[in-house]
Amino acid sequence: MVRTAAAVMRQEERTGRRQAQILDAARACVRVEGIHAASMSRVAAEAGMSVGHIYQYFENKEAIMLALCERDFDDFMLHIMKISDSAGRDVDAIVQTFSKEIIWLLDSDRAAFTLEFMAEAARNPKFSDLVVRVDHRLRSALRAIIEPVLEGLSRREIDMRVETLLVMTRCLTVHAGTRPIGDRGALASGFELAFRGVISPS
Amino acid sequence: MVRTAAAVMRQEERTGRRQAQILDAARACVRVEGIHAASMSRVAAEAGMSVGHIYQYFENKEAIMLALCERDFDDFMLHIMKISDSAGRDVDAIVQTFSKEIIWLLDSDRAAFTLEFMAEAARNPKFSDLVVRVDHRLRSALRAIIEPVLEGLSRREIDMRVETLLVMTRCLTVHAGTRPIGDRGALASGFELAFRGVISPS
DNA sequence: ATTAAAAGAATGATTGATCATTCGTACGGT
DNA sequence: ACCGTACGAATGATCAATCATTCTTTTAAT
Description:
Two copies of one chain form a homodimer.
Chain A: H1 5-33, H2 40-47, H3 51-54, H4 61-85, H5 91-105, H6 108-121, H7 125-146, H8 155-178, H9 184-199
Chain B binds a DNA duplex through helix 1 and helix 3.
């Protein structure tokens, strides 16, 4: 009755692959239809599998969307962490790399997604919980970046700046979702000014 | 056969009232369910009228949502114009009033709406056209505010700053939509720093 | 002023499509 | 022979939109 270790591993790997396959398909559907308009039958068609089979890997549609949202946030945080890790102690360098990297993080694909999930989070607590969690991680990353530069400031002053950066980071994402960014360079310059205003130890 | 002028006026007034009534109901539904999940029957119930009757005043559901979106944007622009009109020529004063006013403009109700419509605009051209139009008006208002302060700068430099302010203004709205703003004062201070960075004639 | 006729306002059951989810069935590896 | 994998038709709910119908208001003629 007991399955071999190899069999278990193969099964787990297949499950993972299937789930990823479903999430990829769901992403494609949500991208053009939105969370609510994306139907299970179309997701199934996109994934190249049957409708019923999807329910073997996810409890229901909402579970798929939540998993998709989480996967997207994780990917976003991965990029942010990379910026945070490579940050130095020179204000100019931080401002410059941060604004440039953030701008390049924006593609309309990711942005449209974030927008979709944020809208859902505005009314569905399961999604807003996810947003709260990723906000928390994002704040930590931002604090790690600016704290070395603003050593003299009070905890409260730093928190205020972290919060501002968080909102600005998010807003860029959302902006990119609505329409193609015309001139990344110009926008990066503009945000460099804004970031410098927030980060500079005045 | 020709109706009296008084009758026409009364009819027009009633039409206006009915349309507003429908839009109010639609707003309430979209607020808690989103554009797609909001059903005509629930909108009708909220409006206190029959489903069929709604179709006397709007061609279809999308037309209602577009009208609702437009009404919301118009209201938003009204507030922005008020800020723009009262702006002086002193940088500090501009930065201070602008950041404070913008923050106070945010209530989670309006924000959740904007979020919803932005998400829709990311895939529906009819909505994105609306966004493009309101962006245009918003840019004009922002340019009117900062141009007197940045007289020496090139057209390109000013455009870059206008664009940055536009994105920042929008992002605040989105942020407010996702969750309640904890400390408006702190956020206003943070954005004052950012705005000063963008607006200051360096 | 009264009233019959016409127009407009409002209803809600109905239609056909689509939705998320379930279930009976079949295939294929072990 | 067994069991996990996979299918897709079936189910019942819900959707946007329509339409036959009933009220209500307005108009025109007396």
